[in-house]
Design brief:
six-stranded mixed β-sheet; 47% helix; 341 residues; globular; 6 strands; alpha/beta
Amino acid sequence: MHAVFADPKTDFVFKRIFGSEARKSLLIALLNHLLEFDGERCIVDVQHLTGEQHVDVAELKLSIVDVKCTDTTGRRFVVEMQVLKVEGFEKRVVYNASKAYIMQLHNAEEYPTLCDVFGVTICSFNLWTDKDAQGRFKVPMLSRWRMQEQHSGAQGLPQVQYAFLELPKYEAGDVPRTLVEKWAYLFRETKNLNVIPSSLSEGPFREALEVSRAAGFSAHEWEAYERAKMAEQDARGALAIERQEGKAEGKLEGKAEGKAEGKLEGKAEGKAEGKAEGKAEGRLEGNLEGKKSTLLRLLARAGMALSEENGARITACEDAATLDRWCENVLGAKAVTDVLS
């Protein structure tokens, strides 16, 4: 039996809601609410910046979901949905927003024409986990970021700003009251709902739920959606295995190398330097090998055969960020060359 509503955190459903020109009012509402725009700052209209907001259902991607648009004043918005926390995530968010800013420029004479960029990211995990003495998160569920002067705290340089909605920090239960709480509740609970709750029965929330209603999906779309959800679980499992293997291999190799160096340099220096250096090198090597194992498993599950050349390229790679990128590329790729790009 199908669920009544599909999960809006998946690429196909997210773009079905926010990436369609016919439903751009939903994107406008989401941006105005999460960026806390009101009065003259409100977005009144948007234009999508790419012509392929609806990806082919056979090419669904897992953790990086984005919709890019600009409003009538020229401001640009990069809206992302991130399902899994991966290495370098914050840097990628900054990169995407910065790229959207510099891509407006064609020559040095055009600096005055550059418009502000806002990166809006919805996270299905806690990005900032530090808590205060009362056990409350230091960074709230909806956080806004921009530059400030370090001595006085005065804000400035507003050209690139960020907003993050961390879904696990939602605490309003089944009775969301604020607009931000309603969006968080919608993203978190839609897949578990059987009917539209009264708290989401009006405005953009009801419309977003109607777009997510499974009855509106074709059989092919629903099958692709379920494959995407299974791919998400596979990716979660692969990342968990990678961490376990990297930790185990790091401990074993670190212990062996630390013991060897300790014997050569004497008990006193060996215990200090051998243990520290061996542990660090072991962890690094174990982590790399774990990532390579994860990549090979994902390729096998996707039915992609490795050539000798590509296999050697994976084996020779010693850059953790590159291996992470290749792992993400598997989801939605059609060939190994797409993965190792």
